[in-house]
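User: Run a structure prediction on this.
Assistant: Running it now.
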Amino acid sequence: MNETGKKAVVLVSGGLDSATVLAVAREQGFACHALTIQYGQRHAAEIAAARRVASALGAVRHVVSDIDLRAFGGSALTADIAVPKGRSMDEISHGIPITYVPARNTIFLAFALAWAEALGARDIFIGVNAVDYSGYPDCRPEYIAAFERMANLATKAGVEGDTRFSIRTPLIAMTKAEIIRLGVKLGLDYGLTVSCYDPGANGEACGTCDACILRRKGFAEAGLRDPARYVAAALTP
């Protein structure tokens, strides 16, 4: 990736959405600085996936930063709470699920903002989308707009600079199928990504958690084969 381009910090979790966002930022000519937060999540296979994605898409630099949210718990991803499996689309689309991690995107965006200010970058990309914000409060457009306002109030660059921070959410109004089609168009290999909330010891996706269900539905609606590795039971009709 060309280091002379305009700089952006891109949050990269290793999942489908964040990988697509990195591909979009690259396509838009940004010199991408990828940021992954290792927060004590049970699906740590995503960290290896994030490294693969950042390398494959030519990030200028990839930082993996540690903050252990297991100290607080409150989520099936950071505490000894079972990950929901086999939920219907109606169940998935209503309420805030137990896989919500308290204040996660606020923490992630705060780290991204700190790095962006240090870099002299003014653009931060995050892969929130319409499928997610129906359940996760920190994926809604009004939240993103509020964080952007805060970023320009609470930083030296925002107060003294002649440009404003922009929180870019290119996927926010897209379905999973639309996101997948976009990524394929940009040459993204989704086999590099991991979406599962509860992967097996060898990184195989469970196939039945909310994230797996939404991913499989997205590929089916896009008319494409999902290259993810699933446990054999998940593939049994």
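The chain is about 40% helix and 10% strand.
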